[in-house]
Design brief:
Blueprint: E1 3-6, E2 9-10, H1 23-31, E3 39-40, E4 67-70, H2 85-94, E5 99-104, H3 110-113, E6 125-131, H4 134-146, E7 151-156, E8 172-178, E9 188-189, H5 190-203, E10 206-211, E11 215-218, E12 221-224, H6 230-237
Parallel strand pairs: 1-4, 4-5, 5-6, 6-7, 7-8, 8-10, 9-11
Antiparallel strand pairs: 2-3, 11-12
Length: 241
């Protein structure tokens, strides 16, 4: 599916073990930007703008049928953005012809952040709950289980240890697993990945191995990989279902 992105604000605060080598913080540090200063970034209004002249008059400038990666410069449920979020919900409500995907480490805030007409969920919103170890999986996925969301995915990235999420796979559409990318990254053991894959097979849930870790263990041997190799090597494993 073709995709677009919408980042209505930029910046985030580290909130869990998985945030240690966050790509947002690393990228900002290189540019001398303070990631902890949350600021508006892109206007959601551009998604509801229409052509006023020519053959496309009356049509949206952002065409329908696309997947929109939402708030990948931050966390859509971030407390600092509570004052701005309604504007984005208004756009999502209008653009039912687009699918909006956001990932969050703050799933406990979900019901505080949805609009009053959320009901049992919107068909065009996909929510990914991100976990990285057993402690966070037990806590966050137990909340995720009961939330009124039409399309749920679990993101196990960076995966920091062997995890059992088998009790939380009912109603889940897919599970994405990946390692950590950094010179000092914590290692990812391929056996952990295969164990999550087995859990998904048993539950009839789609599984995607997104990327290896910078330090990747397979058959007891440690491999040190370049960032550009992480997705490539995961694809070569050919274990997606």
């Amino acid at each position: 599916m073709k995709f677009v992105s919408l980042n209505p604000w930029h910046g985030c605060h580290k909130c869990s073990e998985g945030c240690k080598f966050c790509y947002i913080h690393k990228g900002d540090a290189k540019r001398g930007v303070n990631t902890d200063e949350i600021r508006k970034f892109q206007t959601p209004v551009r998604f509801v703008q229409k052509y006023v002249k020519g053959d496309k008059a009356g049509q949206y400038k952002v065409p329908g049928g696309l997947l929109c990666y939402l708030c990948f410069h931050s966390d859509f449920l971030l407390e600092d953005a509570d004052q701005w979020r309604a504007e984005t919900w208004d756009v999502i409500r209008e653009r039912k012809d687009l699918n909006f995907l956001f990932l969050t480490k703050r799933i406990a805030r979900f019901m505080k952040c949805v609009p009053e007409d959320w009901g049992d969920g919107w068909d065009n919103v996909i929510v990914g709950c991100t976990v990285e170890n057993q402690k966070n999986a037990d806590y966050k996925l137990s909340i995720f289980d009961s939330l009124p969301i039409k399309h749920k995915v679990i993101i196990v990235q960076p995966m920091l240890e062997k995890m059992d999420i088998s009790l939380h796979l009912k109603g889940i559409e897919s599970v994405d697993v990946g390692g950590e990318s950094d010179r000092n990254a914590r290692p990812l053991d391929f056996d952990w990945v295969l164990d999550i894959r087995r859990q998904c097979i048993d539950a009839g849930v789609k599984f995607n191995f997104r990327q290896c870790g910078s330090h990747f263990i397979k058959d007891g041997k440690m491999y040190n990989l370049h960032p550009f190799q992480l997705m490539e090597q995961a694809a070569k494993a050919n274990i997606n279902i």
